[in-house]
Design goal:
By secondary structure, the chain is mostly helical. The two termini are 24 Å apart. Helices cover 75% and strands 0% of the residues. Helix 1 runs antiparallel to helix 2, helix 3 crosses helix 5 and helix 7 packs across helix 8.
């Protein structure tokens, strides 16, 4: 496993959870500091992906485009958004590090259109987790990048991974005393919302996943974006 992949797992499983726990104990508008720390932490594996080669400006431009798309996607139906699908496509196309970065910063950026709060760092972690998971699962042909496969993956990932992570935010922020019974109530009540969002993600991946990935692959081949060794194609 590459160093950047190992760093991604360490950041996701250790650094960010610790930051969220410590940040949750701080008073006032500490969530701004927590969000900033999460961004700094998730940048670590992304920059490790450039190890041994010189980063190209066009790589960052494409990444920012992915962020802009993810952050600005808006469907006027509650809990039926395309943002998770876009984040997962970024992870599939560019790897878990970029998927994590696109997801986390998309959560932060989109909240400027809605509102920031103590839930923002949790959303950054959950959104980033979706992109990271997609990057790992589809890396090196572990799963075929077929519309049906991507759609099923998106459905399951949001329902049983990303959604529960967001529900965990409610558990920690709302419950003064965490109990198994109380936590299960949040997870059960959040399931219909997660399922609705999962269906939206699956639909977008089924319809747009393949054409978007084909375009991104052509860009990667033509301009040598995030290729191993940094050689131009």
């Amino acid at each position: 496993m590459k160093k950047s992949h190992i760093a991604t797992l360490i950041v996701f499983l250790v650094l960010i959870p610790l930051t969220l726990i410590v940040g949750g104990r701080l008073s006032g508008r500490a969530f701004y500091v927590t969000s900033t720390l999460v961004i700094v932490e998730l940048l670590i594996p992304f920059f490790l992906a450039f190890e041994g080669r010189r980063p190209q400006a066009r790589e960052l431009v494409v990444l920012m485009c992915a962020l802009a798309v993810a952050g600005r996607v808006a469907i006027p139906i509650p809990n039926f958004k395309a943002i998770f699908a876009v984040i997962m496509i970024a992870g599939i196309a560019f790897g878990p590090e970029s998927g994590f970065l696109v997801g986390a910063i998309s959560a932060l950026a989109s909240n400027f259109f809605y509102s920031q709060g103590p839930y923002t760092p949790w959303q950054m972690m959950a959104y980033g987790a979706g992109g990271m998971l997609a990057g790992f699962v589809f890396a090196q042909g572990r799963l075929p990048r077929k519309p049906l496969v991507m759609g099923i993956f998106g459905l399951l990932a949001v329902t049983f991974f990303v959604g529960p992570l967001l529900d965990t935010c409610s558990v920690f922020l709302v419950m003064s005393r965490i109990t198994l019974k109380g936590a299960m109530a949040f997870y059960i009540s959040g399931f219909p919302v997660n399922l609705q969002q999962a269906i939206a993600t699956a639909i977008v991946l089924l319809v747009l996943g393949k054409p978007l990935l084909e375009k991104l692959d052509r860009i990667k081949t033509k301009y040598g974006i995030l290729d191993e060794g940094g050689k131009e194609a």
